Automatic annotation (TrEMBL):
Keyword annotations: Cell membrane, Membrane, Protein transport, Translocation, Transmembrane, Transmembrane helix, Transport
Protein name: Sec translocon accessory complex subunit YajC
Superkingdom as given in the UniProt entry: Bacteria
Residue stretches spanning the membrane: 16-35
One Pfam family from the record: YajC
InterPro entries: Preprotein_translocase_YajC (IPR003849)
Residue ranges the record marks as coiled coil: none
Lineage: Bacteria, Pseudomonadati, Bacteroidota, Bacteroidia, Bacteroidales
Native source organism of the sequence: Xylanibacter brevis
Subcellular location: Cell membrane
Membrane topology annotation: Single-pass membrane protein
Length: 109
């Protein structure tokens, strides 16, 4: 009788660990599809925008500064942005995040 109880306990523990592994895989899959994958897509979209910067585009920097691109230096990765008439600042290419014209069109829809 005790051998049957011990065998049942051993079998139950084995099934419990299998369900735990399945649950952990399911949690990881949910995190991947709802958190990691969308962030990767957004980062790829921002990187494509940064690589296609051109003079005359109105942009927003990471600090929330709006301005117009005056000069793009791809060798050093520095963008010169005019934030007011005659006021030009240098910004790293990686900190220019959005195109103002595209944002305004999306907001007006």
């Amino acid at each position: 009788m005790t051998q049957i109880i011990l065998a049942a306990q051993a079998g139950g523990a084995q099934g419990g660990s299998m369900s735990f592994i399945i649950m952990m895989v399911a949690i990881f899959a949910i995190m991947y599809f709802f958190m990691i994958r969308p962030q990767q897509k957004q980062r790829k979209k921002i990187q494509q925008f940064q690589n296609s910067l051109a003079e005359g585009q109105e942009v927003v920097t990471g600090g929330g500064i709006y301005g117009k691109v005056k000069r793009v230096d791809l060798a050093t990765g520095i963008i010169e942005v005019e934030i007011a008439h005659g006021v030009v600042i240098k910004v790293d290419k990686n900190f220019v995040y959005d195109n103002v014209a595209a944002t305004m069109q999306t907001a007006q829809k």
